[in-house]
């Protein structure tokens, strides 16, 4: 028997990268994961290209690995994820200590690439192959795991927003067949998972092959909800234009679908939305949220905003602040616009840095106020909490409410994976605390 080797895997970027990292680690069957880079036989960086200086950050991280490689010539270093896709062979040219480069659509070839790298070759694969990588990645072992999991059901994007690299790094929209998703979900539930978040760059555009024609995301959710032992379903990230009637209805009809929706809009100004190529107006977005709230009044909205998109004016920023006021977000994320090479917006007149900072702070301040008010309003209410892990204090457990608020409870006998009724007693900076109710 060959001695087991150690893998150090560092993940950047979105939840899809977190999921991919898990699958990659499982596919390297001679390896156990370690959280110490200095004892690794293989170091993999799973990278993100979405914003600022992503490429430079990867090169400086790689530069820091030089001493480890000098001390252990057998150490292999690999780059995966969206920077691997965008840079390809350039990575090995610029940083010769890299042995392996693998793009997001080629992870099923990782074991073979690893063997080639071990044999002294430079191994590279950034193809967009026809086959579904997840069908070819080794099945997850039947090991027990925590109560929450991500499950990628859709990948890639055909929308080409003017600021975004995802269509280039992840390729065209592809949905996994429904039966594959159901199988994987059943397997996760057998291993202790109670809460699954379905992932996709445009997850609500899901249209995977089912036994009776293509299934929508709503249909997939309805079928997943029939799995005994699965308590909760969520999905992210959605595009406003793909929010189908059946998916909206599911919020009111499917008790396992949680009342939480991440629905990025990026800007509240129609002029900017048009320049971003988002394909909808601010009014259409607001009407959509009205319909979602009509189906399920307590849906907590979450979103993404970009501050300082090229040619954005003060008037546009006010329109964004107005939209935020109108929605009342429970969570939302604001990013400073970052010109990405090869995207149309990178060629346009950029907003000065100081302006961008100012706008970012104003948008973030408004969102922080809303977020806090939404959270504070939970005090005194009874909510269902799915417990995930022990807290910092003895006897304390941390879980999530249906609305995704972190909730701390100190009580005897609480196990990860259990759902209990909790009376919320206090709201602190980023979480709630409460007491068990029966
Ligand atoms: N598919 C999702 C989002 C994917 S990227 C959607 O359409 O909403 C996640 C978030 O990163 C985006 O919602 C956007 O707010 C932000 N983002 C993407 N490209 C960016 C860029 N060039 N500069 C700043 N923020 C960006
Ligand atoms: Fe990027 Fe737009 Fe596609 Fe989202 S919908 S991944 S922002 S191009
Ligand atoms: Fe980043 Fe790629 Fe995800 S660019 S946000 S890791 S899809």
TrEMBL record:
[4Fe-4S] cluster 1 binds at residues 14, 48, 82. HAMAP family: tRNA_metthiotr_MiaB. SUPFAM superfamilies: Radical SAM enzymes (SSF102114). Its cofactor is [4Fe-4S] cluster. Residues 376-438 form the TRAM domain. Keywords: 4Fe-4S, Cytoplasm, Iron, Iron-sulfur, Metal-binding, S-adenosyl-L-methionine, Transferase, tRNA processing. One of its GO terms (molecular function) is tRNA-2-methylthio-N(6)-dimethylallyladenosine(37) synthase activity. Its EC number is 2.8.4.3. Belongs to the methylthiotransferase family. MiaB subfamily. It comes from Seohaeicola nanhaiensis. Residues 143-376 form the Radical SAM core domain. Catalyzes the methylthiolation of N6-(dimethylallyl)adenosine (i(6)A), leading to the formation of 2-methylthio-N6-(dimethylallyl)adenosine (ms(2)i(6)A) at position 37 in tRNAs that read codons beginning with uridine. It catalyses: N(6)-dimethylallyladenosine(37) in tRNA + (sulfur carrier)-SH + AH2 + 2 S-adenosyl-L-methionine = 2-methylsulfanyl-N(6)-dimethylallyladenosine(37) in tRNA + (sulfur carrier)-H + 5'-deoxyadenosine + L-methionine + A + S-adenosyl-L-homocysteine + 2 H(+). It is found in: Cytoplasm. This is tRNA-2-methylthio-N(6)-dimethylallyladenosine synthase. Monomer. Binds 2 [4Fe-4S] clusters. One cluster is coordinated with 3 cysteines and an exchangeable S-adenosyl-L-methionine. It is an enzyme of class 2 (transferase). It holds the Pfam family UPF0004. Gene3D superfamilies: Methylthiotransferase, N-terminal domain, tm_1862 like domain.
């Amino acid at each position: 028997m060959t001695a087991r080797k150690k893998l150090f895997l560092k993940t950047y970027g979105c939840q899809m990268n977190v999921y991919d990292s898990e699958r990659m680690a499982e596919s390297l069957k001679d390896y156990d994961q370690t959280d110490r880079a200095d004892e690794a036989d293989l170091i993999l960086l799973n990278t993100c290209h979405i914003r600022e200086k992503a490429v430079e950050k990867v090169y400086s991280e790689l530069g820091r690995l030089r001493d480890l490689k000098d001390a252990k010539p057998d150490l292999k270093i690999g780059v995966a994820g969206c920077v691997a896709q965008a840079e390809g062979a350039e990575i090995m040219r610029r940083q010769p200590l890299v042995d392996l480069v693998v793009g997001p659509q080629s992870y099923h070839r990782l074991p073979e690439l690893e063997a080639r790298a071990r044999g002294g070759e430079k191994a590279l694969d950034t193809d967009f192959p026809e086959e579904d990588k997840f069908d070819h990645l080794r099945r997850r072992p039947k090991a027990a795991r925590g109560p929450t999991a991500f499950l990628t059901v859709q990948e890639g994007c055909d929308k080409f927003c003017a600021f975004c690299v995802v269509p280039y790094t992840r390729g065209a929209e592809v949905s996994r067949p429904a039966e594959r998703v159901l199988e994987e979900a059943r397997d996760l539930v057998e291993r202790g998972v109670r809460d699954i978040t379905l992932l996709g760059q445009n997850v609500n555009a899901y249209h995977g092959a089912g036994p009776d024609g293509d299934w929508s995301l709503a249909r997939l959710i309805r079928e997943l909800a029939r799995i005994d032992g699965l308590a909760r379903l969520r999905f992210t990230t959605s595009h406003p234009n793909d929010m189908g009637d059946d998916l909206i209805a599911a919020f009111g009809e499917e008790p396992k679908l949680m009342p939480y929706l991440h629905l990025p809009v990026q800007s509240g100004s129609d002029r900017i939305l048009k320049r971003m190529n988002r394909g909808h107006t601010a009014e259409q977005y607001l009407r959509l949220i009205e319909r979602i709230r009509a189906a399920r009044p307590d849906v907590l909205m979450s979103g993404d905003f970009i501050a300082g998109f090229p040619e954005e004016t003060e008037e546009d920023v006010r329109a964004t602040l107005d939209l935020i006021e109108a929605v009342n977000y429970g969570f939302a994320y604001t990013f400073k616009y970052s010109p990405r090479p090869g995207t149309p917006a990178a060629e346009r007149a950029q907003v000065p840095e100081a302006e961008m900072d100012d706008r970012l702070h104003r948008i973030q301040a408004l969102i922080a106020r809303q977020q806090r008010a939404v959270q504070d309003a939970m005090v005194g209410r009874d909510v269902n909490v799915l417990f995930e892990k022990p807290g910092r204090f003895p006897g304390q457990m941390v879980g999530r409410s249906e609305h995704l608020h972190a909730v701390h409870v100190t009580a005897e006998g609480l196990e990860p994976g259990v759902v209990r009724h909790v009376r919320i007693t206090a709201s602190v900076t980023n979480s709630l605390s409460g007491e068990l109710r029966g």
